[in-house]
Design a protein that fits this description.
The chain is of the alpha+beta class. It has seven helices and four strands.
Length: 154
């Protein structure tokens, strides 16, 4: 057993992986296969290491998403606080898309996730990197109206 643990992976490169994935996603809008390959090459990691890390975390997008990526939590705390189902049903009617889809104009995409790590704000959802909690349908409507207006102004 002459192989030392340090020679198996460089911990500094591995530690930079999450930051590199965030930067790539911000730059390209999502983590395409090409973006993952660039991260792997830059850090000297295998594409498998990079892809498995990116696919593990819900904050990384492996497919193009809408300008406003809506994630609705269906974890236990959110379920007990009224659940994701009424929120998702409302968003489906309001946006005209189902979970996993993007609106035709590319403004909104909808996804159901297991946990947003904000159980004290249940029920919760995230739009891009902004967390919203203790949701009511009226609050969601006002938020969507505001985001739709912003999209039109651009």
């Amino acid at each position: 057993m002459g192989v030392k643990l340090q020679t198996l992976t460089d911990p500094k490169k591995r530690a930079m992986l999450l930051s590199a994935l965030y930067i790539a996603q911000e730059q390209f809008g999502w983590l395409s296969p090409e973006a993952l390959e660039r991260v792997a090459g830059r850090l000297g990691l295998s594409i498998g290491q990079v892809r498995s890390t990116a696919s593990f975390y819900t904050m990384f997008r492996l497919e193009p998403k809408g300008r406003y990526h809506v994630q609705v939590c269906e974890g236990l705390s959110c379920y007990l606080a009224g659940g994701a189902e009424p929120i998702v049903d409302h968003l489906v009617r309001r946006l005209g898309i189902r979970p996993g889809e993007t609106t035709k104009d590319g403004t909104f995409s909808l996804e159901i996730v297991q946990c947003l790590a904000a159980c004290d704000l249940s029920p919760g959802m995230k739009i891009n990197d902004e967390l919203y909690g203790c949701l009511k349908l009226e609050t969601i409507d006002a938020l969507l109206d505001d985001l739709t207006q912003r999209a039109v102004e651009r």
